[in-house]
Amino acid sequence: MGFLSRLFGKQEKKDLKTLVQQGAVILDVRTPQEFKSGHIPGAINIPVQQLQQQLHRLKKDKIIITCCASGARSAMARSILKQAGFAEVYNGGSWMRLHNQIR
C-alpha cells in the first residue's frame, strides 16, 4: 500500500451516479469563490479548511461524496470525515469530472 493510500484511506470503487440517485450528499470543499465560479447543482460548499468546525452541517448516516478542483482537497476531506465517524464517504475527485460522471 502506497503512502497516499495509507494517508487518505483506500476506497472501493462505487458507481457515484447511482449513489447520487439514492440520495448521496455532494460536498464541495473548494473555497466559496471557486464554488461560485461553477459547481454541481445541490452540492454543499464547506471549504476543507473549515470542515472540522462545520461537521454539524452533515449527517453521519448519509452517503457523502467529496469533490474539489483536482481531487487533492476532496481526499483530505474524505479522511477528515472518516476520522470523525462518517461511515460512507467517497472521494469524487474533480467537481467537473464528477459532474460529468453523474449526469
- The fraction of residues assigned to DSSP E strands is 15-25%
- Shape from CA axes? globular
The residue-averaged pLDDT reads 91
Cα distance, first to last residue?
Answer: 32 Å
- The domain count comes to 1
Name the strands of the widest sheet in spatial order: 2-1-3-4
Number of DSSP helical runs: 5
Helix-strand category: alpha/beta
Number of strands: 4
Which value, in Å, is the CA radius of gyration?
Answer: 12 Å
Q: Which fold name is given in CATH as the topology?
A: Oxidized Rhodanese, domain 1
H and E string? HHEHEEHEH
Largest sheet: 4 strands, parallel
In quaternary terms, these chains amount to: single chain
Structure description:
- The protein is an alpha/beta fold and 103 residues long.
- It has one domain: Oxidized Rhodanese, domain 1 (3-Layer(aba) Sandwich).
- 36% of the residues lie in helices and 17% in strands.
- The protein contains 5 helices and 4 strands; from the N terminus they run H-H-E-H-E-E-H-E-H.
- Strands 2-1-3-4 form a 4-stranded parallel sheet, with helices on both faces.
- The longest helix is centred in the last third of the chain and has 12 residues, at 72-83.
- The chain is globular, with a radius of gyration of 12 Å.
- The protein starts with a helix and ends with a helix.
- The mean pLDDT is 91.
- It holds the Pfam family Rhodanese.
- Keywords: Transferase.
- GO terms for molecular function: thiosulfate-cyanide sulfurtransferase activity.
- It comes from Thermoflavifilum thermophilum.
